[in-house]
Amino acid sequence: MRFHYLEPRTAAEAISLLEQWGDQARVMAGGTDLMMQMRNRIVCPDQVVDITYIPGLDYIDYDDRRGLRVGALTTIRSLETSSLIRQRYPVISQAASQLGSSAIRNVATVGGNLCNAAPSADMAPALIALSARARILSRAGERTVSLESFFTGPGSTVLRTGELLIEILVPPLPPGARAVYRKHTIRGSVEPAIAGVAAMVTAGRGRVCQDIRIVLGAVAGTPLRAQNAEDALRGKPLEETLISQGAQLAAQEARPISDVRASAGYRREMVRVLTGRAIKEAMLQ
Amino acid sequence: MKQLITLRVNGADEEILVEPWWDLAYVLRQVLHLTGTKIGCRTGNCGSCTVLVDGKAVRSCLYPVMKARGRDILTIEGLKGEQGGLHPLQESFVQHYAVQCGYCTPGMIMAAKALLDENPHPSEEEIKKGMAGNLCRCTGYHKIVEAIQAVSGSPLPQ
Q1: Contact (CB, 8 A) for A18 and A25
Q2: Residues of A with Cβ-Cβ distance to B67 under 8 angstroms
């Protein structure tokens, strides 16, 4: 693989370069996905725009009004270990801890994980369950989209040429909301998810589910809301039988493929298992 | 067009000519002739290329050399004990028979050093989780975990 290595020092410079080079350019953040894809000739950009020299994109901030704001260049490791995240949004730390290995997490960024848009992206289901939004910068200014609508297919997002993801915003959690992310892999660590489930449950008195969001990863072209499962559970007391029914619905909503890692049927079954477990674990928190 | 860059490797400044697409593992091995760092999978999965950059474990096979400018790089060659001999981790790996073919060993030791630098007294479970990114085909991992435990001061398994 050969490329020109560009190192803009400001977001404006990066955007200008991306506009200039269009399809011939790729953004590099941590580089853990891109280097591997270039080496395997999955992508062959002429120009690699390394955005990690741009200051002010690596931060984790919180206030009670706006909630959480995470810069796109924040490493997965930072999200895993941040005491603020562990305290206020533990599911983000939980998802981060299940991404790759520690050496990958030290370098990989949340923006990179989302923009790479693998169907199995580990940060996506949890953030979508939390109703996160993506703040995107271009020459024209800024726009914000829901993370749920950010993904358009395997490896593709709503980002247009000359646009840069700069921040993820997560609204304050409703009181009583608890979220969990569980992924299933073959050997138990390091691998991409065969199936991943994030569940956010807002429970009221008597185990009544005031709200629930269930997001499936790795079992469709993009992360997928299991809305049938949600509708079946919302407003009802979450007893064992109902949770099982919800898990079954989620499994039916999944659209998995068979590949080298697992068959579609196995992935579907794992969605059923993980959904049940995620909901119960969220209830126990 | 090659570029002249400076890398700080094991405490020494190295001025080298590199192509911008070269990864750190390639540069360490082929340009600096520090062949202790190994290349196994070239996809960041096996861990044999693990080095420390600014004290953090990274996959040098996926780390563009250009990103390494201005940072402190530590490879297996840079480890030594207080009196100049083997680093305690290296000594422990030898004493516990945690080395067979030796190919995973430099990556294992660098990953273990990063783990212990962050968490000096890990439990057995924390060691296993922390070392999950390093694969070994020879040892079956038990002796590697023991070697790390011995250095960390945690009790050995029964």
Answers
A1: yes
A2: 31, 50, 52
pLDDT at residue A92 is higher than 90:
yes
What b-and-e string marks burial along A103-122, b requiring 16 or more CB atoms within 10 Å of the CB?
A: bbbbbbbbbbbbbbbbbbbb
Q: Considering only CB atoms, which chain A residues are within 8 Å of B62?
A: 31-32, 35-36, 107
> A16-41 burial by CB neighbour count: b if 16+ within 10 A, else e?
ebbeebeeebbbbbbbbbbbbbbeee
Q: Which two tokens stand for residue B58?
A: 């990274």
A82 phi and psi angles, rounded to 5 deg: -65, 125
Contact (CB<8Å) B47/A102: no
Q: Which chain B residue has the Cα nearest residue A33?
A: B62
Distance from the first to the final alpha carbon of chain B: 58
Is B43 in Cβ contact with A100 (below 8 Å)? no
Burial of B118: CB neighbours in 10 Å, binned 0-12, 13-18, 19+: middle
Per the CB < 8 A criterion, the answer to whether A196 and A214 are in contact is: no
ipTM of the complex: 0.94
* Spatial contact of A67 and A47, defined as CB atoms under 8 Å apart: no
Task: Report the predicted TM-score, pTM, of the whole model to 2 decimal places.
Answer: 0.96
